[in-house]
Design goal:
single chain, about 300 residues, alpha/beta, Alpha-lytic protease prodomain-like, Alpha-Beta Plaits, 4-stranded mixed beta sheet, about 10% strand, Protein p34, ferrous iron transmembrane transporter activity, zinc efflux antiporter activity, Cation_efflux_TM, transmembrane helix
């Protein structure tokens, strides 16, 4: 978890650097699109601050008031980040409208584009780090921050294209028009971040690719059990909660049933990091599935 905190702190440093570069690009050119790009970088800094807070809090161990841990704070952080992305898009649309009403010529476009390109390169490189490490650490806050930076890169590319067209054609109106187009793209990105975060808050089931190793672990460690049913699994930030009912022969000693539970739990934790497993042991008259030669597993009630 310390690694994710360091990455979140790195995002804050990158955010401040990119903000300074983009504002300088706007100051050099006076471009509405570059000004809008700089506005979004303000949101990047705010998002990085929120992500750092969320990652630090989610790392806290479970306590009396939060016996299941603090993992879900990262989903709230991701929702907030998505909301900030949408807010940035609204601010950009406002600036684009003002530019449409009063188009202005772009000054010193080449230095401005070079500065914008430098900022985009920083964002592109860091967004890959955030998304890759965030997925590996199962950190929704880091992934949301990375997606936000990626949307910023797309914005900057669009802004660059618009400025080049404006300079070549002499049509000053293209500058604010491009700012409006990229604002709509940012809105779409913000919606995706918010939607994905609500899935975590609503305890959506694990996708099939994440559930598959859990099923294999149960099959591997469940020798001696008759069946597993009512299996449920959900993610909560870096943690994975797994619970199910395990049917064993009615005359099996409690110690043997407990040993099977231990084997299954160890097998799941070996394939799924930060797994929290709850197993309810039942006698064979509670079986719900058709008898089979091996361990029968059902993921639905």
């Amino acid at each position: 978890m310390q690694g994710s905190i360091r990455i979140a702190a790195g995002s804050l440093a990158v955010g401040f650097a990119v903000l300074a570069i983009k504002y300088l690009a706007y100051a050099v050119t006076g471009s509405v699109a570059l000004y809008s790009d700089a506005l979004e970088s303000l949101v990047n800094v705010a998002t990085a601050l929120v992500a750092l807070f969320a990652v630090r809090l989610s790392a806290q161990p479970a306590d009396q008031n939060h016996p299941y841990g603090h993992h879900k704070i990262e989903y709230f952080s991701a929702v907030f980040a998505g909301t900030l992305i949408i807010l940035a898009a609204g601010m950009i649309l406002r600036e684009a409208w003002a530019g449409l009403r009063d188009p202005r010529a772009i000054e010193a476009p080449l230095p401005g584009l070079l500065l914008s390109g430098l900022a985009s390169a920083l964002n592109a490189g860091w967004s890959r780090v955030l998304i890759g490490r965030g997925r590996a650490m199962r950190s929704p806050a880091l992934v949301a921050d990375g997606r936000h930076l990626l949307s910023d890169v797309v914005t900057s590319v669009g802004v660059t294209f618009g400025i080049v067209l404006t300079v070549v054609s002499g049509w000053k109106i293209l500058d604010p028009l491009m700012a409006g187009v990229v604002a709509l793209s940012i809105l779409w990105s913000g919606w995706h971040v918010v939607r994905d975060s609500f899935g975590g808050l609503m305890d959506e089931a694990l996708p099939e690719e994440a559930l598959a190793p859990i099923l294999r672990a149960i099959e591997k460690g469940g020798d001696g059990a008759i069946e597993v049913h009512d299996l449920r699994a959900r993610g909560s930030g870096p943690a994975t909660f797994v619970d199910f009912h395990m049917v064993v022969p009615g005359d099996m000693p409690v110690s043997e049933a407990h040993a099977i539970c231990d084997r299954i739990e160890q097998a799941i934790k070996a394939t799924t990091a930060d797994a929290l497993v709850t197993i309810h042991v039942e006698p064979e008259e509670k079986a719900k599935l058709e008898p089979s030669e091996g361990l029968a597993i059902a993921t639905k009630a």
